[in-house]
Design a protein that fits this description.
Layout: H1 2-9, E1 54-59, H2 66-77, E2 80-86, E3 95-98, H3 103-113, E4 117-120, E5 130-134
Parallel strand pairs: 1-2, 1-5, 3-4
Antiparallel strand pairs: 3-5
Length: 139
């Protein structure tokens, strides 16, 4: 059967048609402008004002004077350091702790000081400032 169909259709030119698109004429009137919804760009959050954010620095390592030297470094960058002392407790790694409203500031401070870890503040940390707890000297 297939052989008969092949022989019967062999040599015949395919029947193809050319398809063209015809543009419709627009009325000569100027079309009224249509409102297009353009997404408004999301406004950039304001830059962190380092001098307006309180920072406390605590030493949780065996390195004497570590909190004081890091506090001086943060002050030199422009942060408002309001205290430094020793921290008693177990902290897994050097961390900048923050209350929720200061999350962006915490990330900025961490970048400024070369700290890789940030976390939400926990008790007994104060909720109006950033708390830096050092477990080793900063690189």
């Amino acid at each position: 059967m297939a052989g008969i169909a092949f022989v019967a259709t062999r040599g015949g030119e395919p029947t193809e048609r050319e398809v063209t698109t015809v543009a419709q004429e627009q009325p000569s009137e100027t079309p009224s402008p249509t409102a297009t919804a353009t997404p408004k760009p999301k406004p950039e959050p304001p830059a962190v004002q380092r001098g307006e954010v309180y920072v406390e620095v605590y030493n949780n390592s065996g390195v004497t004077g570590l909190a004081g030297s890091v506090a001086d470094r943060a002050s030199d960058i422009g942060w408002q350091v309001v205290g430094s002392d020793n921290w008693y407790g177990t902290i897994p790694a050097t961390t900048v702790y923050y209350p929720q409203r200061l999350q962006r500031a915490a990330k900025t401070l961490a970048l400024d000081l070369g700290i890789r870890r940030t976390a939400l503040a926990v008790d007994p940390m104060r909720r109006d400032r950033l708390t830096v707890i050092l477990t080793e000297p900063l690189g």
